[in-house]
Amino acid sequence: MEENTKSLNFLEHIIEDDLANGLSKDKLRFRFPPEPNGYLHIGHTKAIGISFGLGERYNAPVNLRFDDTNPAKEEQEYVDAIKRDIEWLGYKWAEERYSSDYFQELYDWAVILIKENKAYVDSQSSEAMAEQKGTPTQPGVDGPFRNRTVEENLDLFTRMKNGEFKDGEHILRAKIDMQHVNMLMRDPIMYRVLHKHHHRTANEWCVYPMYDWTHGESDYIEQISHSLCSLEFKPHRELYDWFKEQVYPHTKHKYKMLPKQREFARLNLSYTIMSKRKLLKLVEENIVNGWDDPRMPTISGLRRRGYTPNAIKNFVEKAGVAKRDNIIDVALLEFCVREDLNKSASRVMAVLDPLKVVITNYPEDKEEWLEAENNQEDDSAGFRKVPFTREIYIEKNDFKEEASSKFFRLKLGGEVRLKNAYIIKAENVIKDANGNITEVHCTYSEDTEKRVKGTLHWVSIKHAVKVEVREYDRLFMDETPDSHEEKSYMDFINPNSLKMIEAFVEPSLTDAKIGDQFQFQRLGYFNVDKDSTASKLVFNKTVGLRDSWEKIKPKPQQQNNTPKNNNPQQGAKAINTINKLGKKYANLPEEKQQKIRAEILELAKEVTYEELEPLFGTAAKKVGTRIAATLILSVKLQEGLERNDVVKSFIEKALEDKNELLVKEATLLS
In terms of Cα–Cα distance, which of 629, 633, 634, 623 is closest to 659? Predict the structure, then answer.
């Protein structure tokens, strides 16, 4: 048991602690709750893997629930695609649920909150409400409709439901605290008027619940034990709990357990964007050919490109479950794909850029069918026959008239081995009027035991099958395309992300079916695209045999990890000392401030990110502590800490502060 505990991630530790503290194992229930407003992408595979993985580990049910609260952006197409993707990954859900299943119950609960004076109808413009809400450093103010009577609110809400008002004319807000330090708690919207056709409830409703109200209550209705979500929802946890706690006294006889929300770092991938809204723009503007374009990071795009469920699962496992955001190098995903396909993909020969080779001492009418191994990694894969004739194709870049001793491919006077066949020697070349080599004339030797350094793939011209190969490169040329304030992610589109090639393959591929996967020897992994027809095969390049970007990409950023603190007590002591120094910092004379500043910067080297992050939520009035947090952050950024959303938000708030000292330190980080 102790050995297993050491290997648990932090979410599993939470569950184990809950079980140890009395939660019955049969009460464990998880869910994956996508919004059907787009296709799932590689980032979602982490959330899918966590929820369904925990279900498998604890033999607990996992619901697939569609949080379908916005009919303006949701479609049945997305529902179907999400189900297809999860099934392809190999997961099975216990129940298929929809938040729209609970619209009536959610409405009834909203009425309860109105009757208890915990919700009210606001009739202001969105601009007026935004102005009243304040900022992270300035409290909000009560609006003119906050003190409407219960009777008036009930009447208006009923009429909203009955369709008497236009879109945006009224909203229902929770009545919490307009001065709350957490802006999400400043009277959040619960319902808005929206006259839109819903993909499941048709035109039955014209008021729709907001996500924050719906999501937690849906978890509660389904009796989810652990509501696991990505890190950006951490500030929402307080509101998640508040909504449940208001309803619980009225419903505890029916729904006995309150779900627990916990957050994990989302999966961010280099050279990729993870926003469904931004991915939709790529589709709408025809930058790509649909959601399943093989350049897209969507699961359907990865599937079409030839990625395997096993490779994606291995990638998610290697990326790990963390408490803070980081960026994973896309090379890790590609490594996992290569590793998986290396075991399963049949080896075949294909030539993408053909150069004709004539073997002059091989009989013109002779034809041999030579034996070739299908996959040396799989003993059960067997062998196939490949035809050999006098005229073959090799890759154009596999030949040079003159080359150094380090060029181990074909050159004039040099010898190479043809895969599964003979050794050939280049004797002379034929050129066109422009001096381009059109043919290489060779002789062959039947002495296949001779030692030569180079081995080339090839195809018999007589038997070659002409196919279309789609060679994909990364869709974006920047490692973090949507992180630039001065530029749009669209500015980093790679204009050469797709190259269409007329290629030639060995005849064994004639009967290849859509989805079949192969290693084109010496070239990479390819699969048969759905655009293939009986008369024309189309192959997608899944991934090369090695990372072609390794030599040209910029030095990779460190992941959002700080150097390990081997002495936790020392780190704890440092953060405690910094807290004490920071409390009086703003009130000290300048000379003393400089001395304390230097001391904090030195101590910051012993502080971990986990110790720093709680300081980001320090109240506005504790400006000294916030300055200290800014100083620690400056050291962590120098050590390679990634600027995740939490870090960016803290810096932005500091820049907006009234205290000049804090703004000065924050400016150094911006």
Answer: 623
* Residue 665 pLDDT: 86
The pLDDT tens digits of the residues spanning 294-328 come to 999 999 999 999 999 999 999 999 988 888 777 89
Contact status, residue 575 vs residue 370, Cβ threshold 8 Å:
no
> Is 304 one of the catalytic residues?
no
Q: How far is CA 260 from CA 225, 232, 408, in A?
A: 6, 16, 62
The torsion angles phi and psi of 192, rounded to 5 degrees, stand at -135, 155
How far is Cα 74 from Cα 68, in angstroms, rounded to an integer? 7
- Tokens 């393959």 -> residue: 505
Angstrom CA distances, 344 to 112, 339, 498, stand at 59, 9, 26
**Based on the number of CB atoms within 10 Å of its own CB, is 549 exposed (0-12), middle (13-18) or buried (19 or more)?**
middle
Q: What SS3 state is found at 249? A: helix
Helices (H) and strands (E) in the chain, counts: 19, 29
Which element (helix H / strand E) includes 400? Answer: strand 399-400
Phi, psi torsion values for 387, nearest 5 degrees: -80, 145
Given 29, 31, 46, 266, the catalytic residue: 266
Tokens of 41: 């992408």
The tens digit of pLDDT for each residue in 343-396 reads: 999 999 999 999 999 999 999 999 999 999 999 888 888 999 999 999 999 999
The predicted model gives 430-448 an average pLDDT of 94
Alpha helices of 308-358 — where are they, by DSSP H? 309-319, 330-344
pLDDT tier for residue 567 given thresholds of 50, 70 and 90: very low
Residue 470: which residues within 8 A CB-CB, separation 6 or more? 294, 498, 499, 500, 501, 529, 538, 539, 540, 541
Cα gap 321→331, rounded to integer Å: 19
35 is catalytic: yes
Catalytic residue among 29, 31, 35, 642: 35
Active-site residue identified among 276, 305, 313, 390? 276
The strand order across the sheet containing 30-32 reads: 30-32, 62-66, 96-98
Known catalytic residue at 266: yes
